[in-house]
Amino acid sequence: MCDEEELVRRVANGDRAAFEQLYRRTSPWLAVRLRRRCSDDQIVAEVLQETYLAVWRAAGSFAGAAVDGTAVGWLWTIAARRLVDAFRRRAREAAVPLAAEPVAPAAEDEALSDVVGDRVGVALDRLAPELRQVLQAMVVDGLTVRETAALLGVPEGTVKTRARRARLAMREAL
Prior knowledge:
Number of domains: 2
CATH architecture of the largest domain: Orthogonal Bundle
Radius of gyration: 18 Å
Number of helices: 9
Largest sheet: none
Helix content: over 70%
Distance between the termini: 49 Å
Shape: elongated
Low-confidence stretches: 96-102
Number of strands: 0
Strand content: under 5%
Structural class: mainly alpha
Mean pLDDT: 80
CATH topology of the largest domain: Rna Polymerase Sigma Factor, Chain: A
CATH class of the largest domain: Mainly Alpha
């Protein structure tokens, strides 16, 4: 049985069976991870489709190019960028600024509200969005500083600064 890196290399050579195996092996995990970021099943389905289309087209560029050097890290980076693109498209289509658009709470926000106490939830809600995004990526998703930087499209130093500011704000609030 091949690992994901080998499957991506085979996909780069046009191997459809390897692509199907890669999809079967990684799509459930990727869908769950996307649903942590977005509660809209239609957007998640679109992003999954766009991600695997990008994988088929760009598998030749892999060669350990992922944030953590793994194929699943590479897949997540592609999917995360596609998700951001989907949010931007939706905002443009609605012709309403993203901040003003009423959105259903993300699935992870709903789960967190059941898990964390009222004080922690209030403290999280009071954080600036960019600080909350860093906490979400690093604590909830378990991403590294490098992965968080790639996901949010900011330098690693900015991620570290935001993480520190978020921790200080949470400490002060609690």
